[in-house]
Amino acid sequence: MGIITTISTWLIPCFIAIVLIVSTWKRVPAYETFVEGGKDGVRMAFSLLPFLVGMIVAISILRSSGALEAFIQLISPFLVKIGVPPDIIPLALVRPISGTAALGMTTELISTHGPDSLVGRLASTMQGSTDTTLYILTVYFGAVGIRKMHYALKVGLLADLVGIIASIVVVTLLFG
Amino acid sequence: MVNVIWALMAVIGIVYAMFNGTMDEVNEALFDSAEEAVTLSIGLISILVFWLGIMKVAEEAGILAFLSKLFRPLIIRIFPDIPNDHPAIGYILSNITANLFGLGNAATPMGIKAMEEMKKLSGSDEASRSMITFLALNTSSLTIIPTMVISIRMQNGSASPTEIVGTTIIATFISTVSALVIDRVFYYRSIRRK
User: Fold this and answer.
1) Which of B2-6, B16-20, B87-91, B151-155 has the highest mean pLDDT?
2) A44 near B112, Cβ under 8 Å?
3) How many separate domains does chain B show?
4) B130 belongs to a structural domain
C-alpha cells in the first residue's frame, strides 16, 4: 500500500517535470504555451458557472425541503426487504445526486458505526466506487455547451445502480 | 429529459415544503447554494488554468500524441468513432490515468478538454456517441485508490484504513464494465430507432 500512495503523490510532479523537459528539448516555447492553454481554463470555468448554479440550487431545494429524506424513508422498507442494510440507504440514494452530501454522509457513517464495522466498510466502498453522475454531467457537458444529452443520464444512473449493488454484494461476501 | 428532471427537483421540493412547513429552510438553501455553486466554479478556475496550461505544453511537445499511439488499440475499441491520432485520445487517456489514482482535481480539466475535442469532431451541440461513452466511464468512477475515503478512515482510527481498497477495486471494475455495456445497449437501441 505504501508504494501505491507514493505513486499517487509522485505522479503529478513527475509528469510536470517530464512535460517541461521534453518541451524544452523540442524547443517548444513552454511558458508562452502554458499561458495560452491556461486562458481556456478561465473561459471554461465561467461558461459552466450557470450550469452549476442551476443544478446545485435545484438539488438544495429538494434536500432542504425534506422531500429527499421523505422519499428515502418511503422506499426504505422495500430496500430492507431485499437485503440492503438500512443505515446505508440514504448514502446509496444520494451518491449519484450530490457529491458533498454523500461525502458528509460517508464521514458520518464511518464515525458513528466505526470504520471497521460492516456499515463503515460498505460506506467506504460505495463512496469510492461510484461518482456523482449529476455533477459530472453538468460540468462536462456544461463547459463545452452540449444541449441535447440523449441517453447520457440514463446510462449514468443505471451504472450507479449497478455500482451500488456491486458494493453491497462484494462487501457482504468479503467482510460479512 | 434534463430539463424535466431539473424542473421536477425544484418543484417537488417547493410543493413538499408547503406541506412540511420547511419554506424557511428552502429560502435559505436557495441563496446559500447559489453562492456555493459560484464559489465552486470560481474555485475550479485555478485547477483548470493550471492543468489546461500544462496539457497544452504536453500537446505541443508531442507527449499526448505519443501516449495516444501507445494505447490506441484499447481506446479505439471503446471509442470506435474517434479517428486515429486525434488529440481527443490523448486527453481521454490523461483523464483516465488521473482518475485511476484518485486525482480528481487533475481529472476534471482533462475530461472537459477531451469533451471539447470530441465536440470539434461532431460539430454540433448534441452529445455524440463517444461523448456519452466517456461520460459513462467517468460517472461509474475509475478510482482504484480512494484517497479521500482512506484519510477519513484513518481519522476515525481504523485498524486497517486501506482494507477497503480491494472491495473498491472490485466494485469499480464491475460498475465500469457495466457502464460500458449499458452504454452500448442504449447506443444500438438509438440507431435502431432511427
Assistant:
1) B16-20
2) yes
3) 1
4) yes
- Grid cell at residue B71: 494505447
Distance from CA of A84 to the nearest CA of B (A): 16
Question: Can you tell me the distance from the alpha carbon of A121 to that of A175, in angstroms, rounded to the nearest whole number?
Answer: 8
Contact assignment for B6 to A44 by CB distance below 8 Å? no
Q: Which residues of A72-105 are buried (b: 16+ CB within 10 A; e: fewer)?
A: beeeeeebeeeebbebbbbbbbbbbbbbebbbeb
Give the ranges where B61-163 is alpha helix by DSSP (H): 63-78, 87-100, 104-122, 129-139, 147-155
**Among B34, B126, B163, whose Cβ lies nearest the Cβ of A148?**
B126
* Residue B182 resides in a domain: yes
Q: How much is the pTM?
A: 0.84
Find the closest chain A residue to B33 by CA distance: A57
What sign does the dihedral A85-A137-B176-B145 (CA atoms) show? Answer: negative
Question: For residue B30, is it within any domain?
Answer: no
Q: What CA–CA distance (Å, rounded) separates B71 from B79?
A: 12
Kindly identify which residue of chain A lies nearest to residue B125, measuring between CA atoms. Answer: A146
Residue A8 has pLDDT above 70, yes or no: no
Q: Which ipTM did the prediction report?
A: 0.83
Q: Cβ separation of B140 and A144 shorter than 8 Å? A: no
**Residue B8: inside a domain:** no
The whole domain housing B183 covers 51-193
